[in-house]
Protein 1
Amino acid sequence: MNKSELIDAVAESADLSKADSGRAIDAVIDAITNSLKKEESVVLVGFGTFQTKKQGSTNGTQPSNRCSDSNKSGKSAKFQSW
């Protein structure tokens, strides 16, 4: 299911217009994204948990010149279903 199909399903299920349903879904996604940016987890009981995960740096090799290269550590979003 893609976003437009989700909007259609929510609009039908909640008896909302597609525009209202789209705004509600956008608001939920924005709230989850903002919490993850603050490194706060989002727990939706009965559904799952969104959280950030720290990734360590890795070493690699550039294929074009065979020089060693290191990738910096970073963060990624993770979802775990219940």
Protein 2
Amino acid sequence: MASIEYEVFVAHSNENGRVIRERWRVDGKLCRYGGLPAVLYIDEFTGVVTLEEYYRNGQLHRNDGPAQIKRDAQTGEVLEQRNFMSGLEVSKAPRATPKEP
């Protein structure tokens, strides 16, 4: 069985020690499983996540919503949402597939 290499980069603010960046990689490519974002940028003072990106195997990808979300650092209001599937931008967010009972 082949081994999988996971790598997580976390940057902290010099000002207050808060986490301000996260990048998750699997086998050297941006990727995170479990429906969680692979890239996070967090405002060091407000704690608001200003950029959230979902990757699968190095490509922007999300099955159940936008793969890129940008927010205002002060209010947390969503400024922009972009939808991607396998690295290609699509016009509408994919719909979540209903789970079988």
Protein 3
Amino acid sequence: MPRGSSLSPEEKAAKLEEKKAKFKELAEKRVTAALSAIAKIGNLSSANYSSTPEQVEKIVLTLHKAVDDVDKMFDSSVPSGPSFEL
């Protein structure tokens, strides 16, 4: 599309619907994959393996931090990237 031209309201609506559909498709695939990976981590708790409480705590804290980071990425009130204020 040439510079300076704008989309019609119908084109904007269609583009928004396309973005929503793509988000849903990717989110379902990626969350399903993440849940599967987390279940595999949970399998490490079986008697086939031996871990220390410190190892388990480190795994759980790391997973919690990763989820918190994703939550912050979706929170539009939190600025993205490094910032500095006086």
